[in-house]
Design a protein that fits this description.
Layout (H helix, E strand, L loop, with lengths): L1 E2 L3 H12 L8 H11 L14 H34 L2 H27 L14 H30 L6 H29 L2 H28 L5 H28 L5 H12 L6 E10 L2 E10 L5 H18 L3 E10 L3 H4 L14
Length: 358
Amino acid sequence: MASRTSDGHRCERRAHAAGQQPAQRGGARARRAAGVACGASPSHAPREDAVAAHLHTEEGLRAALIATLGLLLTGAVELAIFTVSGSAALLADALHNLGDVSTTVAIWLAFSLSRRAASGRYPYGLYRAEDLAGLFVVVAMAASAALAGWESMQHLIEGERPRHLLPALAAALVGVLGNEAVARYKVRMGRHIGSVALEADGYHSRQDALVSLAAVLGLLGVAAGLDWADGAAGLAITAVIAVMLVSTARQVLGRALDAVEPALLEQIAEIAAAVPGVQGVHDVRARWAGRALWASLTVELPATMPLAEAHGVAERVRHALFHAVPNLVDVDVHMDPGPQRSEHHRETVHHRAGSATG
């Protein structure tokens, strides 16, 4: 048996999600979740507030647009001054900033698609669009690293000295200030709307501010008579991009392969086990699609419990999870009559894959 979501539960879930905060670990969290499951009176948002999650998405769209304009302006100023200064480090930094424009636009498009309702063709909605945007970020970072590295190597080999050092230095400082301003804004908005992706993109922009600082150091080296400093700074910038590329690729590919933190599965099992009537929890699974989380689990109930009562326990499990697990959009609860798992699954046990837990 499995307890699934009705339309009314979906509305209630969205209202809960609008005010979710990350749960604290430990027994206190489980006791609070059990209190909700037992019929305690949490502060429920009214039905008309069920669209709050989509309003947060609107704020995310606006944040992505403002960040795009900020990065575009910063990169354009640097690129324009490169045409007269010939600084390889400045070009590398400008290309990186312009590459970040494309990734922020990709995030904006992903937010736009994720707010569309589920349909017969896309029954889980379009939350995966954010994961596709993450893959695009990886590709853009790789292209930026390759182009910046090539240009820097050319400057080192040919020994070309940048012209107009003062304008180039001013443009690099623009990169530092522009990226930091965009970083602060994206981090603040990411925390406000609960978007891990937007907040992480803000930290990425903060790293770009440090990259722009490297461009400043390269130009100062040239001004001090070290003609090789500019090309070397460009290669250093390329190395920073490569490090960020590896880190980002690992996270994006892990999400695409349905990686989750083991602590998340433990949290789900702990909350479910704290609901009265549940005798055991196993086969806990979860998977991300963008910012949305889906989960499934099996609870063991007394074999003599009536069907209606068992369904009620399963719904209280779901209710507790919706309150306690941030970004949870749906959860399926399968009910086993007692702990004898093999006995109750005799007909299908040879079809089952390995369990995640239990």
